[in-house]
Amino acid sequence: MMRAILSAALAIAFVVGVSAQDTPDFTGKWKPDPGRSKTIGGLGPARTITVEGSKMTIIRTVAGNSSSTVYMLDGTPSTNTAGVPGSQLEITYTSKWEGRVLVTTRE
CA dist 82 to 5, 12, 16, 78, 86, Å? Predict the structure, then answer.
């Protein structure tokens, strides 16, 4: 009986460990594809993405100026500012994993 319980516990631990690894990791430096970019000059801003636990930060850099957006990946809303200084808007994002897909809504 004890052996069956231990086997079941190990099987559950293995499944939990595998499913935690199933979400993609976007960490790294991202550059726009010049053939698909629709911005003036054909290139959008470069992006650096970091993921720490359930927090993902995207830093956009254009002409040496950087701005960042934070997304909480556990369904917790995160409020960020966007736009040029003096005309900034507050935008709230809610992100959560649905299987291997990250779904983000904007308010």
Answer: 53, 43, 37, 13, 11
Whether the per-residue pLDDT at 63 is higher than 90: the answer is no
Cα–Cα nearest to 93, from 82, 81, 77, 73: 77
CA atoms of 28 and 97, how far apart (whole Å): 19
pTM confidence score: 0.69
As a whole number of angstroms, the distance between CA 35 and CA 59 comes to 22
Q: CB of 83 within 8 A of CB of 7?
A: no
**Tokens 């199933």 — which residue?**
22
Mean pLDDT of 16-22: 52
Are 56 and 70 in contact by the 8 Å Cβ rule? The answer is yes
Helices first, then strands: H and E counts in the chain: 1, 7
